[in-house]
Amino acid sequence: VQIAIALYPEFTALDAMGPYQVLVHVPGAEIVLCAEKAGELSDENGLLHLRVDRTFDDVPSPDVIVVPGGTVTRRMAREPGRIVEWIRDVHAGTTYTTSVCTGALLLGAAGLLDGLDATTHWGAYDELASFGARPTEQRVVRQGKIFTAAGVSAGIDLALTLVAEMHGPEVAQAIQLGIEYDPQPPFDSGAPSKAPAEIVELVRGLMAAG
Amino acid sequence: VQIAIALYPEFTALDAMGPYQVLVHVPGAEIVLCAEKAGELSDENGLLHLRVDRTFDDVPSPDVIVVPGGTVTRRMAREPGRIVEWIRDVHAGTTYTTSVCTGALLLGAAGLLDGLDATTHWGAYDELASFGARPTEQRVVRQGKIFTAAGVSAGIDLALTLVAEMHGPEVAQAIQLGIEYDPQPPFDSGAPSKAPAEIVELVRGLMAAG
Questions:
Q1: CA distance A210 to A71
Q2: What residues in B contact A150, CB-CB < 8 Å?
Q3: A57 at the B interface (CB within 8 A)?
Q4: Gap from A123 CA to chain B (nearest CA, Å)
Q5: Which of B18, B108, B118, B164 is the most buried (most CB within 10 A)?
Q6: Buried b / exposed e across A189-198, counting CB within 10 Å, b at 16+?
């Protein structure tokens, strides 16, 4: 089984690394990081520099794809380039096509979400709807072979869901225990429906400004 | 405020990237990735290749350090090298000295945990105790300015705890909302006390073999 994590300049690190850390333990899986061009690419903060050896051309028929998000996806979805073309092409042959956070906008731009329930970062529901999707406030949304996950950290939940689907609950539970994923956030403000209203306004403002 | 994330070959990706994704949003913070040598280093799976520009010598007085884990830390703790020396040296001037997963073994090797409560990956309690620490089954353990976190994914909880300590609960809540950290694992098997016994045995066996 080949699992491709699709990268691009200015991706959000945890969107990709959360699923990576789960999926790398899948028995028999080949994890491939790929991007439009081989070479170095940096995350949205310009602090993390990753070397990627495989281009999208090198990965023509992955079994599973994971598309992380990043602020830049809004622009990438409006002006679709090679990554959107690749998503559309390989989706025809995937077993699972998945996204984390605003990676869903790239699935949308590829025409995969029209008429489907889907999720993304809570700040990008409107953009998601512009591709014909019905934005859904769930952590992981499954529609056939397409799985979309909520913002950033939701990629870990997505990946465990995917592993359970592919290999059964025992393998997913073993990986969860291996990465000691027994989350205990010190606050309960991880979703707009849970966070204090003034915190939601604050973060909305920061996102609109940034 | 300078926050240094200390890397080394064969580190565990999410141990470092979880805290990174939280701390990068701390107002006014400078995040520095550093390692013994500048250049490229790879994670424990040999699939993730990061370029690190700063050496430990370049970061002589960080305010906060985060030390991620990896299987290799057991050996690094028994045969202490430059990273352990650096941890010991900079700890004298830090505001917070922190670890994720078996990064705690490197704090232990630096002599920082003797007589203290501390935590690490659940599979490494014995090694942790060998440095005089009292292994504690909590997600994040604070002893003065030293914070240790449980395995791999616990770095996210550690970082939010740290942000709340440094900048108050509102900033931590805002960052939590920004990364939509509203965890909903599909199973409740993230700790040995919660996972089915046969899963715990399976993972123990795999860790002993690997």
A1: 9
A2: 180, 182
A3: no
A4: 9
A5: B18
A6: bbbbeebbee
Tell me which residue of B10, B16, B73 sits closest to B46, measured CA to CA: B10
- Number of Cβ atoms within 10 Å of the Cβ of B188: 11
CB contact, 8 Å: A179 with chain B?
yes
> Are B164 and A186 a contacting pair at CB < 8 A?
yes
For B71, phi and psi rounded to 5 degrees? -55, -35
Tokens of A104: 């869903």
Q: Do B190 and A207 touch (CB under 8 A)?
A: no
Out of A14, A157, A187, name the one closest to residue B18 (CB): A14
For the segment A23-41, what is each residue's pLDDT rounded down to a tens digit? 999 999 999 999 999 999 9
Asked if the ipTM is above 0.90, the reply is: yes
User: What is residue A70's DSSP assignment?
Assistant: -
> How far apart are the C-alpha atoms of B198 and B195, rounded to whole Å?
8
Average pLDDT, chain A: 96
Q: Which residues of B68-101 are buried (b: 16+ CB within 10 A; e: fewer)?
A: bbbbebeebbeeeeebbebbbebbeebebbbbbb
Nearest to B50 among A50, A183, A195 (CB): A50
The pTM assigned to this predicted structure is 0.97
Query: Which of B12, B43, B153, B163 should one mutate to test binding to chain A, selecting the residue with the greatest count of A CBs within 10 A?
Result: B153
Whether B181 sits inside 8 A of A33 (CB atoms) is: no
Q: Which residue has the tokens 């073993």?
A: A174
How many beta-carbon contacts under 8 Å exist across A and B?
A: 217
Backbone angles phi and psi of A98, in degrees to 5: -135, 155
* B7: CB partners within 8 A, 6+ apart: B16, B33, B34, B35, B41, B50, B52, B68
Is A14's Cβ below 8 Å from some Cβ in B?
Answer: yes
Structure confidence at residue B207 (pLDDT): 82
| pLDDT given for residue A207 in this prediction | 82
